[in-house]
């Protein structure tokens, strides 16, 4: 081991005509992570670089940059992510002349999943439209596939390496100037200011500028189960305080927990929760929640994990000092907090310290090693030729950021760099399982339910892992206020007109949630002047007695309104899967296809979705609608097929 000084930030050359714009459209954050990596790559090539979401830029900004790189995921049924929709709509304006982007030079990288029929459609549509408006592709677009053995990286890594080569070929550096090596530290983007004065823990309940601290609103911090319950008679947060809070989050809501019930037996391997929430009246009066929509929850870290990190990084003495974020010219995307906070609160509420470290995180902390062996090893994990070692170290064992910092104990970076090093906690989306408008006179506007399988598993290191949001949900108790946001579905299959059409739904596990909400709505319409179409539900899981979700409700519904066919794979010696049961109803499925049926498939397996689609294709052929499999595929392509797989 060689003891060394931590790296100091290098200075970037100020070269005219050398500016890069890296944009992303992302739902889960994967596209954003790649965009940030590409932004650092262009910085190392001495480009003045801006990284931002697509909705944050105007169309004419593309003309101000030497090159534009766009990273975008495909969501839903070939749809654009929410944070790219405004930009996409601006591209579709009819008044735009064909050559308005003639001087723009761009490339795109798409993130997709080939188990969906419209694989990487968002990237393809965006790429094509930019070319229609005159923009020039300076490097062939890339398309990553989650189904590849190494996931998106299998395509992204070689694509990005070749992209760097092409950029240097088109834009060579002047004599005497070389690219900034990966071993050098780039200037930090976000540096927070920490007051030297300690702030008493009890006085942190009110933030600057009248913005309330989340803790003062009885939000879950995860210190203990008892701490999550509202004390009897405790003062409830004012409407003004809640309004301040939700205004910080796009489409923000404050929901109150009614119940958090385990619906699988305690001896069952999977802990599935049925959560009930009230949405208070102070939410926007225009709020409209429909089947297919999601509720996004914003989890927090457990106090013991925060304490461990503070100890590892030796930040305990300043953990409760005031941090003023008002001095930042910009914030990381998704950082929702008041200007006045503390390091402890940032680590508890905003920064994902238990995430699996991405290569960009390992590269960032490598610059703060005082052990040369540590630095060399961390940098190896970031190189494409060592991708398998990175997977073996980080991804496959599901190592956490805290564990990496414990192992590479020579890493000590200034706490002022936390926003530059740690990823931001991202909200988790859950399909809404039940939607009920509240009774007149109630202090809430909606009652919602979620069906959530808590993530808990054993890794190759024989360690038990529990997901961040799963730990958070496990602690939720009746009366807790929870920060959330409403995510509307981009595909509308609800409402009276669609309720008249036949519905053939396929679900496994908690994938039944959005279908449950849709069937509820269809039955409500049936009680009015809108007779609903035939509804057929195929549900698959392991055991009828352990994970047949909503079984009592299905049984209570009249068979003339709903037909349920089940496949429980572990209840008999010979395994039966959902696709087997679909084939048993070939004629019924074919008859519904004749009547403009809606097909919906939801669950946690892309293989299941593929198997259901293949079974439907066979039903169309066996049921007499088509003679060949090719004809059946073409016919299914003309019908409504909506799938939600995670």
From TrEMBL:
Name the SUPFAM superfamilies for this protein: Ferredoxin reductase-like, C-terminal NADP-linked domain, Flavoproteins, Riboflavin synthase domain-like
Which PROSITE patterns would you find in this protein's record? FAD_FR (PS51384), FLAVODOXIN_LIKE (PS50902)
Q: What class of enzyme is it?
A: oxidoreductase
Q: Which domain of life is it from?
A: Eukaryota
- Names of the cofactor(s): FAD; FMN
Q: Which GO terms describe its cellular component?
A: cytosol; mitochondrion
Q: What is its main location?
A: cytoplasm
The residues that hold FAD are 398, 428-431, 467-470, 646
Q: Which PANTHER family match?
A: NADPH-DEPENDENT DIFLAVIN OXIDOREDUCTASE 1 (PTHR19384:SF10), NITRIC OXIDE SYNTHASE-RELATED (PTHR19384)
Q: What is this protein called?
A: NADPH-dependent diflavin oxidoreductase 1
